[in-house]
Amino acid sequence: MPNASPWMEPKCLIVGVTSGPDQAEPTQQLSSCPLCAFEARTCSGNKLSAIYARTPVKVRGDAVMKKGVKALLAEATSQIKTYEVEEAKNQHGREKVVFIDVRDEPELHSEGKIPGSVHAPRGMLEFYIDPESPLHKDVFDEEKEFIFYCKSGGRSALAAQRAKEMGLERVASMNGGFNSWKERGGQVKTV
Fold first, then answer.
1. Is-above-0.90 flag for pTM?
2. Are the C-beta atoms of 30 and 54 separated by less than 8 Å?
3. 3-state SS assignment for residue 168
4. Portions of the chain given CATH number 3.40.250.10
5. CA angle 80, 84, 86 (to 5 degrees)
6. Which of 9, 62, 67, 122 is deepest in the core (most CB within 10 A)?
7. Contact criterion met (CB below 8 Å) for 83 and 91
8. What is the DSSP string of 100-126?
């Protein structure tokens, strides 16, 4: 039997109060939450519009997951450059560009990699980038553009965001990752 997630079913939390137009008569609109049938209510009047709504979040005991993967990825992609595969293929082989493969070791051995790419698994990336770390890789000292890729694009977007936060200026992620690279005829090297 598969392990059950320690996170309980999504619950609803009350969110939001905003200012609104001055209205003589308060108005209310009601709708129901599809998860728990809580009635979301908007009440407007006298320069204040209070929105009583609930947002589905996952909870574990008293802990609330504040940001999920979708929010983290949306934030990351808004802060970094993203290449489509054809654009990335045009960058491949250029002297001032390094492809960084953030997949795990077993993925490289089973699927191959982009020729010339540097392996820096997502779990070790910060240690490889930091020049004060004993695990630092010199490639991250070079004045180049770093194009991160993973299997489908999620880990590489997060990796590029983190690399930028750590001070690498020219970073990008490849949309669709290695799967899209192979589907569109990109070169693959066996590991």
1. no
2. no
3. coil
4. 69-183
5. 140
6. 122
7. yes
8. EE-S-HHHHHHH-B-TTPEE--TTTHH
Helix (H, G, I), strand (E, B) or coil at 185: coil
Tell me the CA end-to-end span of the chain in Å, nearest whole number.
Answer: 35
- Phi, psi for 180 (deg, rounded to 5): -70, -35
One pLDDT digit (tens) per residue for the chain, 191 residues: 445 555 444 444 433 333 344 434 444 444 444 444 444 444 444 333 333 344 445 556 666 667 888 889 999 999 999 999 999 999 999 999 999 999 999 999 999 999 999 999 999 999 999 999 999 999 999 999 999 999 999 999 999 999 999 999 999 999 999 999 999 999 999 99
Order of all β-strands in the sheet with 48-57: 11-19, 48-57, 39-45, 27-32
Torsion 125-130-132-136 (CA) sign: positive
How far lies 183's CA from each of 1, 17, 98, 191, in Å? 35, 48, 21, 19
Asked if residue 75 lies in contact with residue 155, where contact means CB atoms within 8 angstroms, the answer is no
The domain defined by 69-183 folds into Oxidized Rhodanese; domain 1 (3.40.250)
Q: Are β-strands 48-57 and 11-19 bridged in parallel, bridged antiparallel, or unpaired? A: antiparallel
**Integer Cα distance of 131 and 169 in angstroms:** 15
